[in-house]
Amino acid sequence: MNWSLSFEPFFPWPVLAALLIPGALLAFAGLWTRQRGAWLRLAALAALGAALANPVLLDEEREPLKSVVAVVVDESQSQTTIDGRSAMTDEAAAELEARLARFREFETRVVRTGRTSSATENAQTHLFEALDSALRDVPPSRVGGAVLITDGQVHDIPDNAAALGAPIHGLITGEADEMDRRIRFERAPRFGIVGKPLEMTYRVIATGDQRGPVDVRVIINGEELFIEEALIGRETLLEIDVPNAGRNIIELAIDPVDGELTGVNNRAVALVDGIRENLRVLLVSGEPHSGERTWRNLLKSDASVDLVHFTILRPPEKQDGTPINELSLIAFPTRELFVEKIDDFDLIIFDRYQHRDVLPILYYDYIAEYVENGGALLIAAGPEFAGNQSIARTPLIAALPGLPTGDVVEQGFYPRLTETGERHPVTRGLEGAASEPPAWSRWFRLIGIDRPDGQVVMQGANEQPLLILNRKGEGRVGMFLSDQGWLWARGFEGGGPHVALYRRIAHWLMKEPELEEERLSAAGRGMRLEITRQTMEESAPQAEITTPSGNTLSAELGPAGPGRFSTSLETNEIGIYSIANGDLTTLAHVGPVNAPEFGDMISTEEKLAPAADATGGSVRRIADNDLPNIVPVRRTGSASGNDWIGFRTTDDSILKAVRRVPVFTGFLALALLLLAFGAMWYREGR
Prior knowledge:
This is Glutamine amidotransferase. This protein is of the alpha/beta class.
């Protein structure tokens, strides 16, 4: 029973004071002057005041509240990937929860953290964030304390841990004498020029007094290139050549040694985006024509392209007596371009070019050899390709994907994608291609060819080939069998997607990875692995995935559009995934690169010690699952000892009911009041 006295006056306190204070002053004045009956007058006034104040005894029925104790269980990858830690953690959490359940003073809240789909949370161990979430609805007076079961590698320890107002205890998993080595990048640029050296630095770190050289394997895009030596603790310079445009995965690896804690952090990863140095393109226009500047304007608008453009303004057979030095601003340096520096060009374009002895016949052999050895050639054909001076009648025939029939079709037609073109990356998804007829303008000229060699991705009048793409040796050849593309550029009948088409053709010829017909790509988006397969086939085989820990998974690739198949799956491991699909393989890194979670995996008491000391708690290792005893303590008492940990109890309670007992009411109160006034009048009357 909880008794207390309360007052419920019949008048407001100011009114009550106005009534009683004058009487009290008169009574005290009587006492001061020693008048007879002064004490009786004061007693009568007190009885009147008590009656008007209406005192009430309250009996409160209260239910005591429990202190809330949070048990935060670390399930991050530094715990789960090391043998023994996960089992030790689970056993300690179960035993601690059972012990806390024996105390009526405590309410236990168990929070498990570290297993999420968030890349940020998986990259670091955020135990205090989980603790804050668990106690967010608990008033400070009811917080009994917290226990963190972890390896000690916590990345969100606050500077003001004492603000919790309750002890924080740390129970550390792992052994006290663990040994480990790890490698990390110190300086890793995000971008590099393809084919050019890129400087990076790294460091090998080891616990204890480990010294000496370590063999470091350098792996780029899954291929081990070389092994070099590095001294433990010293920053080491690494120089590599960026192999490809786009994303490159640079990986450093050291072999584990006997007794090492884990090999997970024996790898360091850097993602380097390869940027192509300016591409060199040679454009040779056979004669001035309406579409001559279309290719030029497109290539000049691309900042990554260095364009060399020549136009044959006056053919050699046209003799009018004009001096040679007045025929052009500069001489056409044929030998320099097609013999000495031909390999410097990434792409050669012949735009309506015909053989007129401007180029010696031998030079066509050099161009064909250039293609065979990995070069790129594009023929933008006009009517001259079907004539007697066609370049198909030169040694360049060895590189061409089709021979002219001599026919020139002069009629209006809509360029259309073939079935192959609907799947090919160069023409797939061209704006306006999905409707019938296509939502672009007509063309009016087509050069006929016989037995095309390669992939016909666009067709013209009478379903004849319009655009052919072909591989020749190590190089590539494209043939555009019309010179009417300028109609799209000029907006005739609404124009067409000439910029997208021409640019894709040029970049496919120059081996842009994203435009490969058969390509497997993968990327990490947070903790999700996304896989895409480009193929000219009707379906894609199942993807085989190898996780960073060596486990294998399978995933079906579903249609994602013509020539594209993809899938997406959630992962719970940070690191490099290897994906195989048919004959293709690729790598993808999921999660943050070089996440702190895998940086230092040695269990430690040092990181949590300042927070525990500031709150009156303690940090100790779990030895043979011998957990400390639990002791309820007052808010001002000590919260830890050699073999025990304490949690604060609370005085908070819930009011369930109140019983009122009036003190100065009824006949007894009336009798006392009458007695007091009667005695006063009696004394005054004598």
